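TICKET: design request
STATUS: open
ATTACHED STRUCTURE:
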């Protein structure tokens, strides 16, 4: 009897016990803003600049918030994506007032990068001046 037990024990050691193969579920796609899974009836928006996908409503909220915070340029909300959103995407998702704010931020950013252009220091004045060698440093708004 002992011989049979020993033989069985040896056979157990030699036989590889295979674990059942776990079937992995396909990874669900989720909105980059709210992190909720997409549903069949949910409205989604693929960004043209990078092709990431978000719920349309979430993207609208994200863009409006970014504009209110004065962010410019707008970038994709995906964690490791630094692609700048194209104007067409922004324009389709936000209201006219927010788009006007965004255009103002884009203009101001462009002006700040120009060394020969200066904004009028007067409050509520939207004029810019070209700074040249022939000026006396005095600018007058029209």
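STATUS: resolved
RESOLUTION: sequence designed for all positions
ATTACHED SEQUENCE:
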């Amino acid at each position: 009897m002992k011989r049979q037990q020993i033989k069985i024990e040896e056979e157990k050691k030699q036989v590889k016990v295979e674990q059942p193969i776990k079937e992995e579920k396909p990874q669900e796609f989720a909105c980059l803003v709210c992190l909720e899974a997409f549903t069949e009836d949910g409205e989604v928006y693929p960004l043209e600049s990078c092709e990431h996908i978000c719920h349309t409503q979430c993207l609208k909220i994200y863009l409006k918030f970014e504009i209110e915070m004065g962010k410019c340029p707008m970038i994709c909300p995906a964690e490791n994506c630094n692609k700048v959103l194209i104007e067409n995407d922004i324009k389709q998702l936000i209201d006219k007032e927010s788009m006007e704010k965004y255009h103002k931020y884009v203009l101001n950013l462009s002006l700040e990068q120009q060394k020969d252009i200066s904004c009028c220091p007067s409050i509520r004045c939207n004029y810019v001046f070209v700074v040249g060698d022939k000026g006396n440093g005095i600018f007058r708004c029209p």
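CLOSING REMARK: Confidence is low (pLDDT under 50) at residues 15-27. Residues 30 and 38 are 6 Å apart (CA to CA).
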